[in-house]
Design a protein that fits this description.
alpha+beta, Rossmann fold, 2 domains, four-stranded antiparallel beta sheet, globular
Length: 522
């Protein structure tokens, strides 16, 4: 006999938002046979937190529609979501009170699983939803309903408004923030630290989307269907090229000569390809670039710190031989020669290549790595620096209220690279991803506002390219794996995209760092 999870656990409340049944994410409304294992998840879990986020956005969109206002959720901002008013404007204090009243009333949010044609008819007044549904290869579509308001969401919502608790709505710039609970302490509001440079980079991404005329996923899919994707690829790559040209000018025009360019960013953001492309542009200005990757300064495997699960914590700043790096930089600045070091990831040991480098008056040292912005890296060394932060800040949304998390883009890049070039199955990448995320939060994100320049490495078309390669490795994750739920989530996400063939991608593209076929040596 099957029962709803809510009936099995009748006293569930915030911060619980989601369940896992046999390694699959499930709404709290799901029915489950009595012999199945049910795991209850709260907002500390990433997907459970997204369930909370989606439900909050659903209610805000509901309130906005009742007032004739159209909102758009664009991207994350610390522990919040940034949104805009596309038509009309809400009084945020009033909207907050109305959401609080809905929470107090504990109104039911229905989940209707409808045949595709029926779902299209049901959502006939929501054009952005209809544009998504027409390309989905699903026979049944989940539609969420409260009172007379319905919407499509790419992931589960909460079964009732009473499960919401901690949130806030505040104005910022030309939009608003939906502040979410803290991921560490669900009983309090999350942080909304000011991030001016990051915010500016997102604004630039919006202008690029206008140039490309690709505002959201339906626009991209339509472009693929019409055969216009080749032009989009070329323009997107030209935007990257122009940005690299601009940052190159900033470097060479600095009043005090730049001696070191530091390139930092989270995992799978494209730092290495960016560094190589920047070096080519610097050569056009009479500069001689020398490259150092911080990955080559890892401690030997037995000295590497451990993560809480006992595995090596490569994303920790303590995993680097900082003393050796500082010694090399000091020698180079004195005009002395150093022998280049290389880290062998198969043996887990540092190797000496026999190759040497030395500074001359035209030299700029380009250093790229996760921890290039950490103030401890060059502690005690006086050197003229230029700091560049690279990250894949996607400007593409599934639709008006279904955003694409930036971290998912990088995860998919990494899964593809790990499976295609490093012999690691997707399960290996999922297992390592938790420590990657912790490393970013501790050692990378806190320093991103130090950047002199931020480079958005995201390409509007890239998920349509990655989709064709990722379906097989994701489907190979076993049903018994604890990461099966994540594999299914990503497959569901990728189902929204139509496919683009890799032949369209130029050999110098940042995307080639992950899919292969690059003319750069890594």
């Amino acid at each position: 006999m099957s029962k709803r999870i809510l009936d099995i656990y009748p006293n569930l409340k915030y911060p619980v938002t989601l369940a896992k049944i046999d390694n699959q994410y499930a709404s709290l409304l799901e029915k489950v046979p009595s012999d199945r294992k049910v795991e209850i998840l709260d907002v500390k879990n990433t997907e459970a937190r997204r369930t909370y986020e989606r439900t909050l956005v659903f209610l805000l969109d509901y309130i906005a529609k009742n007032k004739g206002v159209t909102i758009r959720i664009e991207h994350s901002y610390s522990d919040a979501l940034f949104g805009r008013f596309l038509h009309g404007k809400l009084d945020l204090n009033t909207a907050k009170k109305e959401i609080e009243e809905l929470i107090k009333a504990n109104k039911k949010i229905e989940r209707l699983l409808l045949p595709k044609l029926e779902a299209i008819h049901f959502l006939r007044d929501r054009e952005d939803d209809l544009n998504i549904l027409k390309n989905l290869s699903k026979s049944y579509i989940p539609v969420y309903k409260i009172d007379n308001f319905s919407a499509y969401f790419a992931g589960p919502l909460l079964p009732g408004t009473g499960f919401l608790s901690i949130f806030d709505l505040i104005p910022i710039e030309d939009g608003f923030l939906v502040i979410l609970p803290s991921g560490d302490e669900p009983s309090r509001l999350g942080k909304t630290e000011e991030r001016k440079r990051l915010f500016k980079t997102y604004r630039e991404a919006e202008k690029e989307a206008e140039i490309l005329e690709i505002r959201d996923l339906p626009h991209l899919n339509s472009c693929i269907v019409s055969g216009g994707i080749s032009e989009i690829v070329k323009v997107a790559e030209a935007i990257h090229e122009e940005k690299i040209t601009n940052v190159c000018r900033k470097i060479v025009e600095r009043k005090e000569k730049v001696e070191i360019v530091l390139i930092a960013g989270p995992s799978s953001s494209g730092k290495t390809t960016f560094a190589k492309r920047l070096g080519i542009h610097l050569r056009l200005h009479g500069v001689h670039p020398e490259y150092i990757s911080l990955d080559d300064y890892y401690l030997d495997r037995e000295e590497t710190p451990r993560y809480k699960d006992g595995t090596h914590f490569f994303d920790s700043f303590s995993a680097l031989d900082v003393n050796l790096f500082r010694k090399h930089v000091k020698k180079l600045l004195k005009g002395e020669e150093i022998e280049v070091v290389s880290f062998n990831f198969k043996t887990g040991r540092r190797e000496w290549t026999g190759k040497t480098i030395r500074f001359n008056p035209e030299t700029i040292l380009i250093v790229e790595g996760l921890h290039a912005f950490n103030p401890e890296l060059l502690k005690g060394i006086r050197v003229n620096q230029f700091l560049i932060y690279v990250s894949a800040l996607t400007q593409l949304n599934i639709n008006r209220v279904n955003r694409i998390p930036t971290r998912d883009v990088r995860l998919l890049r990494r899964i593809f690279r790990d499976t295609r070039f490093r012999g690691h199955p997707a399960e290996y990448t999922f297992k390592k991803w938790e420590s990657v995320k912790d490393g970013e939060e501790q050692f990378i994100f806190p320093y991103q506002e130090r950047a002199d320049f931020m480079f958005n490495s995201s390409l509007v078309y890239e998920l349509s390219v990655l989709k064709g390669f990722l379906e097989t490795p994701l489907r190979c994750v076993k049903t018994t794996s604890p990461y099966y739920c994540e594999a299914l989530r990503l497959l569901n996400f990728l189902d929204h995209f139509l496919t683009v063939q890799e032949e369209e991608i130029p050999p110098t593209s940042i995307l080639r760092e992950f899919i292969g076929g690059s003319t750069f040596y890594y």
